[in-house]
């Protein structure tokens, strides 16, 4: 299934089509397609939306996971696709838009764009974005604003659509975010800026001006002239100059930036802090429907705003959780859109393991505290593996490989594969293997696992290979405390 259109909310959501009150999505991460989630959110409850959707770059992005330093492990897993094509779903969505918005700016704009662009991947992207922009407008309070982060690939078309959805009169800024670094093309100027289209819902929008330091030359001039510039107007040197719509003082994250999480296309927190400060007040609700590794949520938390995040990629949970812990947010947030962990929804997890094997495996690895994806593998026959450090006094820390296997019940083959993994690939630091499944484990599988023998860790004896239920891996301590 195409991850862009995957809608876990439909399959597993507690309330079906029920509308969620805003209290239900504050401090919540929703795993699923943002269209389905936003359609269930209550009208006019959000103060600020920042969205950083895929830009129609025709690329696939990977997340880099760094395992425990002592094992020098690194996994590169596919994160999200930004590759589009015009298909039946695009045709249906286009029809839906033109019927529902017939004769109105949205209907006219999208029909006009189809004439200009044609039925191609750009148009598929634009139709997809229009559906989401309509929901964003509905969710915004009359005082609210939206910032759409894009680049010149589609910004000119997106601006037309934003004009149609939000009204030309509500266009506030085209912010040019300039950055440095990265490669340069031989036959073009280097493309080193993104665009952030800022619209308000009405004329009653919140805006807190931001200031930036005057240049040295301006400061000297104004000081010489007793606080007045050449135009005869006073300048507040301490406060600084009113910020313009081109921002060149925040660079994009470089490979060595300490802020980097390994999540692709991660934006700098400072960029988001500026946006949030400008267009919201303390306690306001900030929504990021393409939240990735949670930059917006981290910035909102730091600035005392409420937040809600949506992302279709379950592995973003893994990155987000580690990031939130670093921010002291810890477990003070909810995850929705997946079958429930507490109380454990056994049937829901089992159904997901069959109908969406890959998403299931990624979600479970993403939810096991302290577990990091291991090796670049996720396969139909081998499931997905994570690695975690175990507590103990050993000078060299011990580790467990957690192999989450969806699709159907565990088989003896899975145990044998784990034996090979422990024997051949992990050296002495990985002592135990855990096979995790949401289904009943056949007796022969348990026997084969027991046959793999025992190992003593921290004075306690435990099975070299253990089979556990998903409920156990999400809550258990594997018989040994986690570090
Ligand atoms: C450009 S990244 C956002 C990065 C983010 N601003 C950050 O700093 O981490 C786009 C994100 O949108 C997510 N995404 C793509 N299509 C989606 C959809 N239909 N619903 C929810 N999330 C989606 C992808 O999984 C990806 O994490």
Q: Could you give the topology of this structure?
A:
Layout: H1 8-12, E1 28-31, H2 34-39, E2 46-51, E3 59-66, E4 74-82, H3 88-100, H4 105-117, H5 121-139, E5 140-150, H6 155-166, E6 171-178, E7 193-200, E8 211-212, H7 216-224, E9 241-242, E10 246-247, H8 269-279, E11 285-288, H9 295-302, E12 306-311, H10 316-326, E13 334-336, H11 346-355, H12 357-367, E14 372-379, E15 383-390, E16 398-404, H13 412-425, E17 430-437, H14 443-451, E18 454-457, E19 460-463, E20 465-469, H15 470-475
Bound molecules: S-adenosylmethionine.
S-adenosylmethionine binds next to β12.
Kindly list the characteristics that best describe this protein.
483 residues; alpha/beta; Rossmann fold; Trna Endonuclease, Chain: A, domain 1; 5-stranded mixed beta sheet; 15 helices; binds S-adenosylmethionine
CATH second-level architecture of the largest domain: 3-Layer(aba) Sandwich
CATH fold descriptor of the largest domain: Rossmann fold
Unreliable parts: 1-15, 477-483
CATH class of the largest domain: Alpha Beta
Helix/strand-derived category reads alpha/beta
pLDDT averaged over residues = 87
Strand count, sense and barrel status of the largest sheet are:
9 strands, mixed
- How far do the termini sit from each other? 36 Å
How many E strands? 20
Q: Provide a count of the helices.
A: 15
